[in-house]
Amino acid sequence: MTGAADDNPTGNSVNLRAFDGGTFDDEKIHRVKLVANGATVKLFIDEVFGAEVPFPFATGLTVGFGASTDENGNGVVAVFDNAKIKGGSVPTHGGP
Question: Which of 8, 11, 24, 50 could be disulfide-bonded to 43 (CB atoms 3.0-4.6 Å)?
Fold first, then answer.
């Protein structure tokens, strides 16, 4: 969420077509990578590019996960392990 008028923090979700299909909904372990450069952020899953969006921020960043399903009865499960943050500085406090 960047705070822009078209940020869409609630309501309908955004579908990334690059991640549609059996490769990413196979209930296997996948690697998510975010690359932020102070102007944009790029999203990759298993090194497949999904999207690049404006993200003019370089300090005070937090990372979270959001997902939605296409119909009732479907679900989303996420488990995070082996997080690695490169660049920037060491955080001075933990958690929100």
Answer: 50
Q: Which residues pair with 41 in a beta bridge?
A: 36, 53
The one-letter amino acid code at 74 reads N
Q: Tell me, rounded to whole angstroms, the distance of Cα 63 from its chain centroid.
A: 8
Contacts of 45 (CB under 8 A, 6+ apart): 19, 24, 30, 31, 32, 33
> How crowded is the C-beta side of 68, counted as CA atoms within 13 Å?
10
Distance CA 8, CA 15 (A): 12
pTM of the model: 0.67
Mean pLDDT of the chain: 76
